[in-house]
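Service request form, structural biology core

Requester: graduate student, group of Dr. S.
Request type: structure prediction, single chain
Budget code: on file
Notes: please return the result as structure tokens.

Sequence provided:
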Amino acid sequence: MAANEENWARYTGLPPEAYSEMDEAKVGPMIEHLLGCNAYLEPDLMATGRGFSKSWARVQQETRAAFTDPDLLAYYPEYSYRDLFEHQQSPEEYLTPEQVQKRAAGFANHMRFLKRYVDAGGKIVAASDITQTAPGLGLHQEMAVFVEDVGLTPMQAIQSATKWVAEGFRIADLGSIDVGNLADIVTLDADPLQNILNTREVDTVIKDGKVIDRNYHASFAGSLFRFATDSDSYDMIDYQDWAESLNQTTTPRGGRTAEAGNPASSPTPGVDATAPHTLMRGSPDTMVTVTGFNFVQRSQAYYDGIAVPTRVVSSTQIEATLPANLLARAGAYPLTVKNPTPLSTPAWGEESNKAFILVPFEFTKVLPQPEW
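Core staff response, request fulfilled:
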């Protein structure tokens, strides 16, 4: 849509510089094209346009205030929130005056484009980008930008975070209060249609028909939610350093053997990986391949502390069958392996480190894909 498209043909940056040269003559045709594709746009303004919304000073203050809560800080590492603070600096602190002017012009044009798209019948969806925003709070801040800068109504902003998102993913179980939908509801103490900031006045959160505890808990920093400076993903295998040390200490000098014997005493087993590691809630009986080391003929797999049918393939591979009744609950559950006693290395124990099996909620009503 730029007047000089060659200037931006290879532009892949997040900031809205490209919109600074938006060609008004191309806006209408582009909107018609996007509408024809039934496109749901995710502008992610808290990341792409950070620093230029009308609420930026408020965003900075809200973020700083959020990280004064000691219960939150109990499991949110310091380097993560300091990284967030750096991302939320004012543009004048890291851009030249010329760059500030160009981005501000691009941001303003981007807002006009989004408003025209919605006015024409298009949908945009609210999102937040970690570590550009504080978890949870970022979504509310994005909705506020949709109202204060894009010019949506409060109801449209709410739909952008609920109904329109579900529509965009072609999922009919979510996004609205209706018969047969998942019972996920947020009740507020103030009317968000009067002020979009009232979406933060949360009284109760109900998920799957149950009231959710909204307090921070230090125990949230368990193995599954452990953060690392070199990774933004969850650890599917717990205590990997422990497993590596165990491997070096207890496996035979020749390395991991293929045969699983029946020794008089057992080494402590270790787990390296599982496949698959994600199973939809309501899945039938499912066989999971566990790879690791020190497995013996009588090794036993446990899912959430319950013994499950186990077939030992070799000293480095086990097949564990997870029964359907255990896959009826959504969540993240540990899968471990125990070896029979007596142990050849009692100090290491009889049980392996944990692998986590993720069991997300299933969606019972999936809309058909649109015809483009």
